[in-house]
């Protein structure tokens, strides 16, 4: 499967990443990406930028090194009510909003509580995708959550970093199960490198291998073409991005 969008990347602004957005974009061009999502950590993550940082992504050109730039965030799931750490006035500045569990922000609890949090994140309607769900510290009812994600058109991330054994150790088993069940249910999948250094931009081989293992149709992988990704944003109720008009079809 060919992937042309990386929907989960970090810059120096996240506090524990090591590259600038220019370096990330240059790597994206070199590796053949057409769209790059900038998804630095939202404010509750230790070391993350102030919320004005996300508003000010409007100063970013829509193209850097000939790669389209998607203004995004990796928000933190805060509680079982499904709240995330973005102010309401932030959403109008952002194209792409992911939500993830992070141990410093949401202390691992029971499977029931994790499931409740994810269901409420989905139902709150503010999040376009759920990030690195394979983390064994945050077990949840996979079938229930993925069915809800399908009903609300929320994408499920296949996080390449989770499959490398370098972070969230033990995620590979649950990621496999998530993709298997997600294929059966018919969810939308997205693919993220979770790069914290520019050379990891577009490193998606493990994610692609897992999607191919279960023969997930390209039509269900929103990062397989620019039109699928951008039209997914329209499905989510986002405004059309005029600078990307030629990438919608």
Protein traits:
single chain; alpha/beta; TIM Barrel; 8 strands; 29% helix
Give an account of the 3D structure.
- This protein is α/β, with parallel strands linked by helices.
- The protein has a single domain (5-247), classed as Metal-dependent hydrolases (TIM Barrel, Alpha-Beta Barrel).
- It contains seven helices and eight strands.
- The protein has helices at residues 21-30, 52-55, 111-124, 142-151, 171-185, 205-213, 226-235; strands spanning 5-6, 35-38, 63-64, 67-76, 96-100, 129-130, 155-159, 189-192.
- Strands 1, 2, 3, 4, 5, 6, 7 and 8 form an eight-stranded mixed sheet that branches.
- The longest helix has 15 residues, at 171-185.
- 48% of the residues are buried.
- The mean pLDDT is 97.
What layout of secondary structure does this protein have?
Elements: E1 5-6, H1 21-30, E2 35-38, H2 52-55, E3 63-64, E4 67-76, E5 96-100, H3 111-124, E6 129-130, H4 142-151, E7 155-159, H5 171-185, E8 189-192, H6 205-213, H7 226-235
Parallel strand pairs: 1-2, 2-4, 4-5, 5-6, 6-7, 7-8
Antiparallel strand pairs: 3-4
Helix pairs in contact: 3-4, 4-5
Cofactor: Zn(2+)
Keywords: Hydrolase, Metal-binding, Zinc
Binding site for Zn(2+) 2: 16, 41, 196
Q: What's the structural domain tally? A: 1
Classified in CATH, the superfamily is Metal-dependent hydrolases
List how many beta strands DSSP finds. 8
Binned strand content:
5-15%
Terminal CA distance: 19 Å
What is the architecture at the second tier of CATH? Alpha-Beta Barrel
The biggest sheet amounts to: 8 strands, mixed
Average pLDDT over all residues: 97
Mass-distribution shape: globular
In the CATH scheme, the class would be Alpha Beta
The low-pLDDT segments are none
Helix content: 25-40%
Q: How is the CATH topology named? A: TIM Barrel
Structural class: alpha/beta
Q: What does the oligomeric state look like here?
A: single chain
Binding site for Zn(2+) 2: 16, 41, 196
Organism: Vibrio panuliri
Binding site for Zn(2+) 3: 74, 102, 132
Keywords: Hydrolase, Metal-binding, Zinc
